[in-house]
Amino acid sequence: MLKSGAFVRRTIDEAEQRCKQQGVRLTDKRKRVLSGLLRSDKPLSAYELVDFCKNEYGQPLPAMSVYRILGFLQEQHLVHKINLANKYVACAHITCEHEHGVPQFLICGDCHRVKEISVNKSTINALQRSVDEAGFQLVSHQLEIDCLCEDCSRGQA
Fold first, then answer.
1. How confident is the model at residue 156 (pLDDT cuts 50, 70, 90)?
2. What is the pLDDT of residues 47-97, one digit of tens each?
3. Contact call for residues 91 and 80 (beta carbons, < 8 A)
4. Based on the domain organization, do 60 and 123 belong to the same domain?
5. CATH number of the domain to which 145 belongs
6. Residue 95 domain flag
7. φ, ψ for residue 105 (rounded to 5)?
8. Are 65 and 113 in the same domain?
9. How far, CA to CA in Å, does 76 sit from each of 22, 24, 30, 119, 152?
10. Around 17, how many Cα atoms within 13 Å sit in the side-chain half-sphere?
11. Which of 26, 104, 118, 144 has the smallest number of Cβ neighbours within 10 A?
12. For residue 22, which of 67, 82, 78 has the smallest C-alpha distance?
């Protein structure tokens, strides 16, 4: 389901305030890219965001600029990269006031929708211990799990 314009504006305003608190600017181009992710119900690639900016704002944005903007938005914890798909989603917690756990992404294998949920600290600690015991080093705590969303699973019944 696509998000309302009011939701997108409110979220952009909150993101802008967060950036100000960190001493950085959420420029118009950064707002446009974030807006594209907020409006979408699926993860988007940098090239899909290039197309979104061109179609929505009538101004082409070079792919390299979009990649730099996405890097900035990741650093500010406003977007997440879905590594399995090499695409990006807006953080589901931009407007929240409280601290969140490690993001976990449930990815529908049929429609490719993504739902961000938090994993509690004890689960991450247990995962870390298992990785250590196996003789490996955990590089990222981000989890991406292949699932079926409710809509798609009803369609298969």
1. low
2. 999 999 999 999 889 999 999 999 999 999 999 999 988 999 999 888 887
3. yes
4. no
5. 3.30.1490.190
6. no
7. -115, 125
8. no
9. 8, 9, 11, 20, 33
10. 10
11. 118
12. 78
Query: Which pair of tokens denotes residue 15?
Result: 């993101």
Per DSSP, the chain holds a count of helices (H) and strands (E) of: 6, 5
Q: Are residues 10 and 66 in the same domain?
A: yes
Answer yes or no: is 97 within a domain.
Answer: no
Enter the tokens of residue 4. 């309302």
The mean pLDDT value for 11-33 works out to: 96
CA distance linking residue 73 with residue 127, whole number of Å:
27
Q: Which residue has the tokens 């903007």?
A: 69
For residue 59, the model assigns a pLDDT of: 86
Residues 78, 70 contacting (CB under 8 angstroms): no
Question: Are 15 and 40 within one domain?
Answer: yes
Query: Does pLDDT of 1 surpass 50?
Result: no
Residue type (1 letter), 43 = P
Percent of the chain at pLDDT exceeding 70: 95
* Structural domain span for residue 146: 102-156
What's the total number of domains in the chain?
2
Q: What is the CATH number of the domain that holds 67?
A: 1.10.10.10
